[in-house]
Design brief:
- It is built from 10 helices and 5 strands; from the N terminus they run E-H-H-H-H-H-E-H-H-E-E-H-E-H-H.
- The strands form 2 sheets. Strands 2-4-3 form a 3-stranded antiparallel beta sheet. A two-stranded antiparallel sheet has the order 1-5.
- It has helices at 24-44, 49-67, 77-84, 88-96, 108-118, 148-155, 161-170, 196-217, 238-270, 295-302, and strands at 2-5, 134-135, 174-176, 181-184, 229-232.
- The relative contact order is 0.11.
- With 313 residues, it is mainly alpha-helical.
- Among the domains are: 108-184; 230-272 and 282-290, no CATH class.
Amino acid sequence: MSNHSSPGDLNGEVAQAAVGLPEPTLAAEAIARVLQPLARLMIDHGLQLPSMVDLIKKALVDEAARAYGLADKGSSDTRISLLTGVHRKDVRHLRDVPAMQTISTPMVPLAASVVARWISEPRFLNADQSARPLARTPRRGVPGEADFTSLVGEVSRDVGARAVLDELVRLGSVELRDDGFVVLKTIGFVPNEGRSESFHFLAANVAEHLAAAVHNLAPDRVGPPKLEQSAFSQDLSVVQVEQLQQLARRLWAKSLQQFLQTATVAEQRSVAQEGPKYRVRFGVYFNDTQQDVPAANAQASAAPKKNKRKPKP
């Protein structure tokens, strides 16, 4: 078993600013590996090379203009072309092309916030910190006890509790029982597979994870590195992989609840504080992949076996 540590410091200690030269060869090797699952996503969903080339060009132009502009001057088409390798004529065209819209999931942020509050606010929890079933409306529950309508009202006054409930039921996150109580089916917000919400979280989660790693490797990084680490194990059987996955889910559920409880307090304290505001995303992932057979073993298994003949008597 091993622990992978990126430049991100596990203890959160302030590190010296990273100083170094660009590493195009190492970056190309890393990008080649990152592109493998992206290629699978493209093939699975019918995206072909020409459309992806346009997306990459647009991303290069937009990021160069946003992050590498000169003070009070921005970036000229020529400067962006030099930074990115995109032809200046294409740069001029792409700067006028509107950015691709974020995947439209208007109810997802609200639904996720409702679930987050449900599993982090003590009034909505049992003694063992599990989410309590909530009466759909105050009149269906016990007077003085929290209910689903009040939960939604604490998160937003703009959308009705019934609309949020219908969305959570559609996403498979909650169940409405015959007795009028709403039950949270999973810890955290996990939409059903194959929906636009899953693509929304793919974009948000992977982008934020990659952004943290890219920040840590920036040649001119200033300030402490961001947390970006993982642990891995190998030579595992299928049974052991499944057991580790279940353990990872339990650990995540516990960490998620603790983090959300602290984040709720942090949001309340930040309301009255002046200055720029930031968003954070704290996540975890688990993936298993069949290991490649070592070349020596593969050759040995592929070699034809010679038939041994018994000597004639």
